[in-house]
Amino acid sequence: MRKRLTAIAQWLSPELTGVSGDVRAVSLIAIWGTLYGAPLALVGLVWLALQTDLAVLRANWPLFLLFLALHWLFSLLDFSTVQESGSMQVSGTQGRIVTWSVALLFGPTAVWIQLISQGARLLLSRRPPPSTAFFQRQQRWDFSRFLSVMVARETLSILPALWLYTQWGGVIPLAGFASTAVLPALAATLVKSILFALVMVPVLLIFVWAAENPSLLEMMRAFGRFWLAIFIFYLLPDPFGVLAAGIFASSGLGAYLFFFAGILLFSYRKFCTIRSDFMKNRQK
Fold first, then answer.
1. How far is 46 from 164, CA to CA, in rounded Å?
2. How far apart are CA 107 and CA 141, in angstroms?
3. Distance CA 249, CA 243 (A)
4. β-bridge mates for residue 91, sequence order
5. Residues 40, 157, 115, 230: is their CA dihedral positive or negative?
6. 85-133 pLDDT, tens per residue?
7. Is 144 strand, coil or helix?
8. 100 closest CA partner among 74, 61, 119, 62
9. Percent of the chain clearing pLDDT 70 (strictly above)
10. Cα dihedral 247, 250, 255, 257 sign
11. Which of 120, 142, 119 is nearest to 130 (CA)?
12. I need a labelling partner for 263 at 20 to 30 A (CA). Which of 66, 122, 133, 141 fits?
C-alpha cells in the first residue's frame, strides 16, 4: 500500500524523487492527505448543499452572523499540540460547541458556520509563498489537505448525526432540557464523535506511513498523542453543545451568550497558559 501511494505521489509531483527526510515526508503527507480528503469533502459539500435551508438563512441571518462572529472569536484561541517531529499538529477551539448547538437549533444549515469560519482562518494563516517552485506546489498541496480534511470531517460527522437525531425522535430546534429532547441529542453527539474519529483514522495512518521506518515506540507515541489531542480538543467539548442549545431553547439568546462568555473567559486563560508554556519550551 505504501509503495503504491508513494508512486502516485511521485507521479503527481515528480520532484519527490530528488528529496528525502522531513521534506519528503511532509510532501507525501500533503499529497496523500489531499487525495484522501478531497473526495470525502466533495460528498460532504453536496450533501450539505442539498440539506441547506435558504429560508432559515433568510429568516435568521442576523443570528447566523452573530454565531459566525462567536465562532470566529473562539477560533482565535487555538489550542494546539505539536509532535516532537514538528510535522504533525492537531489544533482545536471551543468554536465547535457553537456549531453543534446551532445545528441542534437550526438544522444542517448551521454547518456552514464551521466551514466558513475555519476556511477563512486557513486562508488568513497561509504563509508567504516559498521561493522555489517545488515548495510553492507543496504549500498548495498542504493547504488543500487541511481544507479538504476539515470539510470532510465536519460535514460527514455532523450531517449523519443530525439525520439520526431526527430519526430517534429529536426535534429541531431542541425542545429545552426535557429528557425526551436531551437523550436523542446526546446519542447523536456520540455518533458525531465516533464518525469524526473514523474520518481522522486514515489521517493518522498517513502521518505514520510518511515517516521513513518509524520505530514501534515512535508509532505508539504518535498514536497516543494524536488521539489524546482529538479527544481533548474535539470530542470532549461536543456534549456542551447540547447544553448550549438547551439554554437557548429554554432561556433565550441572552443566557446563551452569557454561557459562552464564561467559556470564552476560561478558554482565554487556558490559551495564555498554553502559549506561555510553548514559548518557554521553544527557548530551551
1. 19
2. 32
3. 10
4. 80
5. negative
6. 444 445 556 788 999 999 999 999 999 999 999 999 888 877 777 777 7
7. helix
8. 74
9. 84
10. positive
11. 142
12. 122
pTM, two decimals, is 0.87
Which three cell numbers mark 230?
A: 482529538
- What does the pLDDT read at residue 92? 57
Residue 82 DSSP code: E
User: For residue 212, what are the CA distances in angstroms to 30, 37, 201, 205, 224?
Assistant: 16, 23, 19, 13, 19
Note the helical H segments in the chain: 2-12, 21-51, 54-75, 95-106, 111-124, 133-167, 179-210, 216-230, 238-251, 253-283
How many angstroms separate the Cα of 206 from the Cα of each of 144, 149, 201? 15, 12, 9
Determine the pLDDT at residue 224.
77
Q: Are 156 and 44 in contact (CB under 8 A)?
A: yes
**Identity at 198, one-letter amino acid code:** L
Asked if 143 and 119 count as a contact pair (C-beta separation under 8 A), the reply is no
C-alpha cell of 215? Answer: 520505530
Per-residue pLDDT tens for 57-98?
A: 999 999 999 999 999 988 877 655 433 344 444 555 678 899
Q: Please give the grid coordinates belonging to residue 137.
A: 506546489
